[in-house]
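Build the 3D complex.
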Amino acid sequence: MSSAVKTPLLQVRNLRVEFPTRRGVLTAVDDLSFDIHEGEVLGVVGESGAGKSMTGTAVIGLLEPPGRIAGGEVLLRGRRIDNLPYEELRRIRGKEIGMIFQDPLTSLNPLYTVGRQLVETIRTHSDLSEGRAKARAVELLAEVGIPAPERRVNQYPHQFSGGMRQRVVIALALCANPRLVIADEPTTALDVSIQAQIISLLKRLCSEHGAAVMLITHDMGVIAETADRVAVMYAGRLAEIGPVKDVVKHARHPYTHGLMGSIPIVGQDLDRLTQIDGSMPRLSEIPPGCPFHPRCPRVFEPCDQERPDPIPVENSEVACWLYDDKRSGGGGHG
Amino acid sequence: MVEVRPLPSADSPLVEAVDLAKHFDVSPPWLTRVLERQPRTLLKAVDGVSFAVPRGRTFSLVGESGCGKSTVARLAVGLYTPTAGRLVFDGTDLAGLNSRAAMAPVRRRLQMIFQDPFASLNPRWRVRDIVAEPIRAHGLLSETRAIDRRVGELLELVRLTAADGQKYPHEFSGGQRQRISIARALASNPEFLVCDEPTSALDVSVQAQILNLMKDLQRELGLTYLFISHDLAVVYHISDYVGVMYLGRLVEWGEARSLFRKPQHPYTRMLLDAIPDLEMTGRRRIPVRGEVPSPMNPPSGCHFYPRCPFANERCRAEVPLSITLPHGGEVRCHAVEEGRLTEAAVRQALGRGASAP
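Done.
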């Protein structure tokens, strides 16, 4: 693999996102590091409050104040982007990083036709004429599988169904040929049958355009089908990151293990699902040490005191003391 | 508070829907209709649905948004009056009970759990008052001490503590709130619970807790569930029987395991095909073509024909009737009836190679 030599497309180093509130500073993302390579699909999973969406918005600099990046850095092709002035970052957004949000209605302007929004975005990032941009917009709509694109291009977002709107959003995200697409729960608001269509479309288009994808979702099924590697987040921290097969089939972190067991599967006859008791801590009540230790079935002595850093295990990294041979006496594996 | 209940027997249905229909009048206002010469428009949310829920079992309805599954849920607890058909609960037709007084004894025996535990609990009430409300409303207990004791029991039944009754809903997480909703639903000793997407708003690990709890309670209390969900994996896990709805009609229903193993209706097959593959077998997903049409203006004949790879002229013109399957379920499909859905035809239509499994 040549990617081992090349600089990763996106490098996130020790990212920390904070929210100052009246009751103190809340840490939504804490010391998070990961890479995304050219053309790779990285899945980011976790339950509500895990900090996965916050990571996505921090990467493209769209954190809503008072949220702020309080530490670490974000590098795109080796160049630091988290400290760029607003205007410069705005040019990168759209041109180099495309964004797809959960609810297509919020990312489309209801007052403008779909065509006008596409043309505007295309012209912001290229020097195409109005007419050429319009032709490109129709092409893009056809590419994302919208029937009769010549007619649809002049329609408003409310005239599209949910699935069709999400296709328009994908067209918008891809129109400047970005190197990276951040998709935040792109299928969560859609019906099952439409979900499958959108996921296969997203996957096909990104590989055709050679774009890498950061796919943020809570749905392990979507990840299993789409991602090359997966990062599992818990309480703002990385629990485990590794190739999708390893994480889905041989989860190492006790949290990932419990999470996988709690998902019902068609064809699997279980009387009871694996149950992780309790729930994710609120940001104001993250326990010391490993944040998962109060719910962990395999908790032992260092867990409530010291915070585990990601430890390399084969092709993965796992933030769990069980994988530190000095701590667990080598007996924790498996 | 101990109640003698007949032992659950698979043969006698506790709840039975017979040609159940609910139409909503969504016409524009009278003046607009007269001026613009528009006819009345009817939304057939539920259009002739029949099924039976045996005592002590779980019957699930699945389908995509707009298929009418939540309307069936509301009909089943008597929140809506059916436009046509009957909903029979333990021998009594709910539609026939047109006064509050006549409805009261039945109402105690059926309860509902809603999707959003943030919207279904009154934020200004303490949890003990929320859970005690059905007890007071049905006059089951009058003494305050007895009510408090019962509320404590109910909270412990859903794996909370009696002390939690002092708190307000906002002090609980989503999963705990859903437990409170369940405790409230159980307060009147119901036999039948209608659960409308009870875990859809929850995270997977919390969903597992609630599903496990619901199964435990069913065993402990002999409850009968009508479970509404769009998540096929959840439905597979919790159900004894499953019905698949499409635009107001029940296109197929049957025993859960056999329906999932041998789906008959092309829509059921496609829905099952659309489930993400967590086992990572490398199976190629065949996305369902097209989208659900508007229920305001559904296609003629079989509603599914525009998306169906097996549709022909008959499907377009004629509404398919229910046919009984050899293993007991029912399906509404001309192609199944005519035996057009052979293995080879299915494989070809779904674009699979002949060698593919």
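Chain B touches chain A through 43 residues (CB under 8 Å).
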